[in-house]
Amino acid sequence: MSIDYSQKIPNNVNLSDDRALQRALEHWQPAFLDWWRDMGPDGSHSFDVYLRTAVSVDPSGWAHFDHVKMPDYRWGIFLQPADPERRIHFGEHKGEAAWQDVPGEHRANLRRIIVTQGDTEPASVEQQRHLGLTAPSLYDLRNLFQVNVEEGRHLWAMVYLLHRYFGRDGREEAEALLERRSGDQDNPRILGAFNERTPDWLAFFMFTYFTDRDGKFQLCALAESGFDPLARTTRFMLTEEAHHMFVGESGVSRVLQRTCEVMRERGIEDPAEVRAAGVIDLETIQRYLNFHYSVTIDLFGADQSSNAATFYSAGLKGRFEEGKRADDHVLKSDVYRVLEVRDGHLGEREVPMLNALNEVLRDDYIKDSLGGVARWNKVIEKAGIAFRLTVPHKAFNRKIGTLANVHVSPEGQLISEAEWQANERKWLATDEDRAFVASLMGRVVEPGKYANWIAPPAVGINRQPMDFEYVRFN
Ligand SMILES: [Fe+2]
Ligand SMILES: [Fe+2]
């Protein structure tokens, strides 16, 4: 499954055997590049960036590192190898051979799933396009650009499926993916969190930790799909996604490390004094966490959803690690507990599991995201500081599903509108918080140097030395 780089579009799907498809994608390619020039990282087009490129889909050695100009990055189509024996392993088609083509009756739903996933990929590039102007180091700048080019490649991954399997409406959807814009009033991206701004590097690290992890869970659920090309595409995307979450987890960790260092050196705890020392106070970090976490868990959708049931029963979208679960993988008689508001209290209610599959995936996500927060707290603990970060209650600041209509504190208490108003500034990043964080953002471009508010990483990318020139500006 090595990748053919002699083609205009690198691929491991024998694109040159299908002339019509190749032509259609080669027609979309310049439109993609136009989009990258307009909406990709601001002012970056002549930089040489130390990037990894996929040269194989073999897990033991798939990445090649070199300095490239981002518009010359070889965005391509890479699918995990096919298993001719693969069977659908959940839903009503369980036991049947996996589909190599789109079943007519599931066509509209599959297209919708692919478009929704595809739309998030360019959206995050748009959200992050100004961050390069304030990167705290060349190392961080390079990581931002790596995430950006790979989100561009994830767009290619979804566009390939649309072009290859959905004919004319697939091609139209592929064009629309380049036309919507994050945050645009008239033509926004499909999902809420992808229309929020990512204005500073703390937001970027929180986004890559929390929101790219939503990507991981969605991709894991799609990697189970009975539609085999979707499963094979998303499996390789997951390999790339792991780095994005690393950028987020290690980024927040380095911010905490630096803050704690300064707090300890100066013996200060008061957030105002911490800010005056030029680092981000732990309280502000907590408010950013609360915001990104709550906005991200909304991405899993309504707690009860007949669409989720349909997607599962039809074999289109599985659960996280479907194959490791011990139930019947049809779920017709299973139940699941979801939150509900009853008599002024938050309680739980049992509902048919098929309808609660968004909630199942959200709960798996929540478990996974707690791990990094515990590791962040270790950094604070090691510095001998009593503060601990916490993940807010699942019902906090929700805008989708049953919980959208109530106010809940980070501890999970149902509260009144007035209590919410009185406390919101303590719980969610305020304009003042964001202005303070923005005031620290300044571009550091000397190799091996880091902005004052963030600690250096433990090791370089691809084991490069600390003063490595990850980005050359030319
Ligand atoms: Fe992605
Ligand atoms: Fe990502």
From TrEMBL:
GO molecular function, one term: benzoyl-CoA 3-monooxygenase activity
Gene Ontology biological process: phenylacetate catabolic process
Annotated GO CC locations: cytosol
Keyword Oxidoreductase set for record: yes
Key words of the record: Oxidoreductase
InterPro entries, per database record: Aromatic_CoA_ox/epox (IPR052703), Benzoyl_CoA_Oase_BoxB (IPR017635), Ferritin-like_SF (IPR009078), RNR-like (IPR012348)
Domain of life: Bacteria
Annotated EC: 1.14.13.208, 1.14.13.58
PANTHER family found in the cross-reference section: 1,2-PHENYLACETYL-COA EPOXIDASE, SUBUNIT C (PTHR30458:SF0), PHENYLACETIC ACID DEGRADATION PROTEIN PAA (PTHR30458)
Cross-referenced NCBIfam families: benzo_boxB
Protein name per UniProt: Benzoyl-CoA 2,3-epoxidase subunit BoxB
The organism of origin for this protein: Cupriavidus necator (strain ATCC 17699 / DSM 428 / KCTC 22496 / NCIMB 10442 / H16 / Stanier 337)
